[in-house]
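Dear colleague,

Thank you for sharing your sequence with our group. We've completed the structure prediction you requested, and as agreed, I am returning the results in plain text so they can be pasted directly into your records. Please verify that the sequence below matches your submission; if there's any discrepancy, let me know and we will rerun it promptly.
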Amino acid sequence: DPTRKIVGPAAEELNAAGGERAELTSTTDSSQAGRTPFNAIIDAFEASSVERSVMRAVLARRRLDEATTDPKAWVASIIPSDDARPSSRGDEPDGEVGCEIPEAALRGISVVQLEAIYEEACELCVSQGWTASAGPQAGKKLDPSDMNLYDLVSHHVAPKTLATRRSMVETVAKGPQPPAWFVSHWWGEPVKDFIACLKQHLKLRHLSAATTHYWVCAYALRQHRLDEELGGVGLDAMDSPFNRALRIADGTLTVADKSGVVFSRVWCAFESYATLTQRIEILHDLAIAENEGAKLVSDGPTAQDGASGASRSLALAWKAVRESEFPTDQLMGVVTDFSLSEADSSRPEDKAAILEAVGDARHVFDATMRARFGGVVLRELYKHEVAFERWVEDLRASRLRKLSGDFPRDQENSRHPRVKPASDAVIRALPETKIKDLRLGYGTVASVHAPIFRQVISSGQLLSLDLARSQVPDIVGVALAEALLDKRCVLTMLNLTGNKCGDATGEAFDKSLGENTSLRVLNLSSNPVAKSTAIRKRLVDNHGSRVGFAVVAGPWASELENFALVSGSGGRESKMNDESRLKGSQNVLPVWPAA
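Please find the predicted structure tokens below.
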């Protein structure tokens, strides 16, 4: 939200140098706001179907002006070259820091660089006696631990970049730093909390603090030339540096402040919506600082969830445990109250431009945002009947393509009475949604749901389905298997761990897997069929790596067996000793009766 007037030291000089962006109009006429050449280059990369890491490697090493005449031909010629091979050591060029990076989308920043900037700012804050720049403490002495981005930009970033009129990234980098992740956040959270969230993100996703770059607007944009950076009059939000950076990233990390202000900012909402409605593989993670550290809700399992040799499916179980500690208070308000029309912006012109970009789809925008965060807080939301019903309607109206939510991980005989009707409502809504990737854990699936699941799989709607420990009966298991026989089916992963699927389900899958070519992983751990030696052996022998049954060794085997999902990594029984990880999590791991 870099749209406020600069205050603090040298305020008059800095504001005169262009510290505010030019006025935006609410029009997005193509003659005023055409697509940038950079977007044409990204279009060419996406048409080539190369991985984003390859695209970023090329963008870090090659001059963009080479591609302006014919981006498609340029991409085609460069893909086979060494420049298209990501380096395990990162892509930092040799030379001195300080450079010009003309394309704002290529100005990512590493956590190592962020920490160095923050450390220098803390020293200057004390030695120069900085005062708070905004908010209720404005004008009062600033403690470094309370420093937010408003303070950092006005006292440090803006003065440090005044002479060159470059961005902070260009001040500390040696060359282009294409971002692997886009960061959406509010400037008012303490910088130390922001960095803690990024460090936790690095840890869980096993990323390098030195070579993983995040796109953060305050450091990426030239604070003294914002009118040039942001397109001037007639800004097209979809063609902004924000959206261009998002297009080359693996996903967006939304950093939530403890008061939840980020969810009321119009740019932050736009960034989340753009992430949620792009290609399904684009990730959306959510982090919040807590007790000198941070908690993270991840889009799918992280590398840390799958550590010690755990499969993707078992990693999903660890993800559920990890995320059970994520604070949900701020998110409940988003689920029930979010409205783009009510979102705030430092400049009314910015909000008008985004509303114009969204146009008549504003109700879809609102529903998508509420639906996304409802999945995160499902374990609390389902208890509130009216709010839950409204959320299900939002799910129907939204463009959300991935929904991941767990009800409380209670034993079957002690589940809350609201779990059954809540599960039923979500399942019945599925055919009317855009959902392609669904996890609905610890719910209640009944025989009546068999035709619904058959429909959403046989029609080609679902790519991935996870119904872990949701009491799936044999009749639904058979329906799922039969749906695989439809030529339209595109399902690639089916997790039925910890359910009630018996021999009939096993027999049905043995038949359908012989004809189906889409399903790569079928997880049947902790089902009655898993104890049927003959059917179990036949499934593994006939279908190899597509089917597996987890067996866990060690003194914690019973607990982890009940938690385990299947590997699907070799069609054979996988063994792992997770005693150390279980000991570290024993306060939150539930114990279920044997299936």
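Summary note from our side: Residues 279 and 401 are 9 Å apart (CA to CA).

Kind regards,
the structure core
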